[in-house]
Amino acid sequence: MKKVNIAIAGLGTVGTGVYQILQNNKDLLTLRSNIIFEVVAVSSRSKKDFLDPKIRFYENPLHLAQDANVDIVVELIGGCDIAKDLIHSALKNNKKVVTANKALLALHGAEIQSWVDKYHGHIAFESAVAGANPVIKAVRESFVSNEITEIFGILNGTCNFILTKMKNEKQDYKIALNEAQKLGYAEADPTFDIKGNDSAHKIVLLSALAQSSLPDYENSFVEGIDQITIDDINLAEEFGYKIKLLGIYKRLGDRVQQSVYPALIKATEKIAQVDGSYNAVLSKGSNFEYNLMIGRGAGGLPTGSAVVADIVDIATGRNKNFLFNADSVNLTKNKIIKIKERVGQYFISFSFDKNEVSKNNILDEVFANRTKIDKVIYQIDENFPEQNMVRVGLITDSHQEKDLLDALEMVNKNHIKNLKFIRIEQTNF
Amino acid sequence: MKKVNIAIAGLGTVGTGVYQILQNNKDLLTLRSNIIFEVVAVSSRSKKDFLDPKIRFYENPLHLAQDANVDIVVELIGGCDIAKDLIHSALKNNKKVVTANKALLALHGAEIQSWVDKYHGHIAFESAVAGANPVIKAVRESFVSNEITEIFGILNGTCNFILTKMKNEKQDYKIALNEAQKLGYAEADPTFDIKGNDSAHKIVLLSALAQSSLPDYENSFVEGIDQITIDDINLAEEFGYKIKLLGIYKRLGDRVQQSVYPALIKATEKIAQVDGSYNAVLSKGSNFEYNLMIGRGAGGLPTGSAVVADIVDIATGRNKNFLFNADSVNLTKNKIIKIKERVGQYFISFSFDKNEVSKNNILDEVFANRTKIDKVIYQIDENFPEQNMVRVGLITDSHQEKDLLDALEMVNKNHIKNLKFIRIEQTNF
Predict the structure, then answer these.
(1) CATH of the domain at A284
(2) Among the options B95, B96, B167, B202, which is catalytic?
(3) What is the pLDDT confidence band of residue B370, given thresholds at 50, 70 and 90?
(4) pLDDT band, very low/low/confident/very high, at A245 (cuts 50, 70, 90)
(5) Theoretical Cys-Cys bridge with B261: which of A163, A209, A238, B223, CB 3.0 to 4.6 Å?
(6) Could you tell me if B148 and B292 lie in one domain?
(7) Are residues B121 and B191 in the same domain?
(8) Which member of B286, B289, B305 has the closest CB to residue A145?
(9) Per the CB < 8 Å rule, is B321 touching A318?
(10) Half-sphere exposure of A197 (CA within 13 A, CB side)
């Protein structure tokens, strides 16, 4: 029977999950593939107690790529330094690569594509986006005949957990973040998650596959959840919306929107109902219409399950796809629109002193008809104990973002405090 | 560039969809695969106007299998007669097969497996289950390392449309069915859909893949929606439940439950919220935990999208999987439990004459403590204009079905009318 030898670089949460799956589900994998999978080498910061002593241990992960007895190198180190060198070296040494490294692919896609071409290599990265949800495979294989017109993704479990906590338990952002850290859903330094970068790496990869183009992180618009307050969430709820951090890809004629930001979505839409640490990806295509996948976006075994699926695809020879969904010579050049060109509705909120301006006049005072307003809600702003400040929440008509920003620029700043705006999205699903 | 020649047998809704996709998305398919896909031959009851005149037309679909210029035969005739002969003949003639025919695979799995073995053939059938939802690929490839412990599927759009109509518009079953027929969601003879057979074919295939075993339709339990009344739906709603026709696969130790029946599910569970003609599949696995896919389960382009994905998998060589998720010599023997062995909660309802038995005594009269009852609701039974009849709805504790049926058998039939029971399911998602 065919035997495939695997090296794992990095034994953090995901690496340990992959190791466990390959040990515990060995027979099942063989039953379904007629292949024996064997972990023959690992590398990690420290040698772990749970490792089978027969497995070769390397302090330097680069040595995995030089191990003549390794067929597939699984890169789970993360980041763009040693991980990048490891993948380069593995391809050079004629080894197949499996990685969960979204940052590396999103930021260095062109260079990695050049290695794949040069060495006729293969890199699988199902686990890089939405964890156990097989969305990469779906976009590349199941939806192969479709123009992918839109993708909306809840791609970061940490942010979704925090936003859910804030909404359901009326917790402040910082308290919810703290709890996420205690429960292991957020890292000690959560910057990458809460600022939206992690989600952006993922939507950039989905966008590349949807368009058959190189990933273009630089031109993406990224905004995180760290400015979202409990007031925003409460006001949104009054209007029937929830706030979710969304990765968004939209085809708009021959251009695309590719961005990450917190957005209001109607609470009745399915993606708005995905709470807690779950991930979800809603894809729309010209033939299949709608597809929504919901599942675990992180965790050792769920993400490990996606990594092992890639390993089996490679071992069986199912890995017949192009890195970015077209032969490199045919990759299309994407034209990403600037966020200022976005057309859509907006949620705007601010506070004003009711002793200074009357409720009847405030909108005229502030917007002077420069913005068409759909609905307004007034509430006492609890942050001011004197009860003299009113918090206004309003939903605009559809505008180009540039026009809205111009209008907000002209707002009489003497009258209002804490002005903010959040985009509104509609998935129609 | 590699060229792959396709023959389509059957130009109904799905066949026409496949044809359209292969014509309209030709360039996209080539971009993503470096292969040119060409429909070279078709067969259908009548020659269609939209067909390119260069395409060979055969009245007898079996001739497609003998066309030396055909690489892939796409069987979209349905049923187990000529479709079966066509697939046999195609495999014999060394052609790959793509089919949407769930009935054929569920009923004749063993025979078809023997042909695949004999001719070293390949049959792809993604479109046979849940339309555009790539659930076959997910179970076989993405979840390859997992023991699949449970699958709950809304697998028949017709039934889901009817149940949704009944609930949302308080329509009787027959009126909702009528409307489904008018809108093209139900066939003139809807027996196969509403009796649950279609859903059963699908869950039998998912069950086979989950277990790596041959499909076993015969030992499955199948119950349709044709006995569900608006009273059931209304009472279920009072308890916080919706009624959905579910295909269910559950691993219970070394045995499995494999069945189709209408079930009450808590309205807060995600699968209960899938309404209208959509399909949904919730899978649970030992590593990935939960995966829910929602999308179109029927229609020419959505189902066609899944058929074309199979064509591309075959053409690129990605089709490296076993028909039923293991080499035929290794297929496991499934042990299906009888429905009477099911353990779970039940919804029971019946009517009684309040002039004959008092509300306080009715449950004792009827059940005499043979069934543990969790919650009860009493309503005037509107089907009796005298207002003397009361409809009782109740939710039992968890029981073995056999015990419940024994208890119902002993019910004093003089006191009650229209006794019925519906199973309750809990997905925990």
Answers:
(1) 3.30.360.10
(2) B202
(3) confident
(4) very high
(5) B223
(6) yes
(7) no
(8) B305
(9) yes
(10) 10
Model pTM?
0.96
Q: Tell me if residue A202 is catalytic.
A: yes
* Cβ B294 vs Cβ A292: under 8 Å: yes
Q: Report the pLDDT value the prediction gives residue A372, as an integer from 0 to 100.
A: 82
In this prediction, residue B280 carries a pLDDT of 98
Same domain, B221 and B94: no
Cα A401 to Cα B108: distance, rounded to the nearest angstrom: 59
pLDDT at A373 over 90: no
Contacts of A146 in chain B (CB under 8 A): 25, 28, 305
Contact A294 B289 (CB under 8 A): no
Residues B256, B149 share a domain: yes
- Boundary residue ending a domain (B339, B354, B373): B339
Kindly state whether residues B176 and B291 are assigned to the same domain.
yes
A396 touches chain B (CB under 8 A): no
Catalytic residue among A202, A242, A244, A284: A202
- Whether B296 has its CB under 8 Å from any CB of chain A: the answer is yes
Q: How far from each other are the two terminal CA atoms of chain B, in whole angstroms?
A: 47
pLDDT at position B368: 76
Minimal C-alpha gap between A211 and chain B (Å): 10
Q: Is A178 on the interface with B (CB under 8 A)?
A: no
Query: Which residue in B32, B290, B295 is closest to A288 by CB distance?
Result: B295
Q: Judge if B286 and B142 occupy the same domain.
A: yes
Q: Which has the closest alpha carbon to A288: B126, B272, B62, B401?
A: B126
Angle at which helices B157-169 and B173-182 pack, to 10 degrees? 130
**Number of folded domains in chain A?**
3
pLDDT of res. B124: 98
The 10s digit of each residue's pLDDT in B307-321 is: 999 999 999 999 999
- Domain CATH number, residue B358: 3.30.70.260
Query: DSSP state, B138?
Result: I
Residues 251-280 of A with CB under 8 A from B: 270, 273
Residue of A nearest to B144 (CA): A309
Give the number of A-B residue pairs with CB atoms closer than 8 Å: 199
pLDDT band of residue B114 (cuts 50, 70, 90) is very high
Angstroms from A21 CA to nearest CA on chain B: 7
ipTM: 0.96
Both B145 and B115 in one domain: the answer is no
All residues of chain B having their beta carbon less than 8 Å from the beta carbon of residue A29 are 144-145
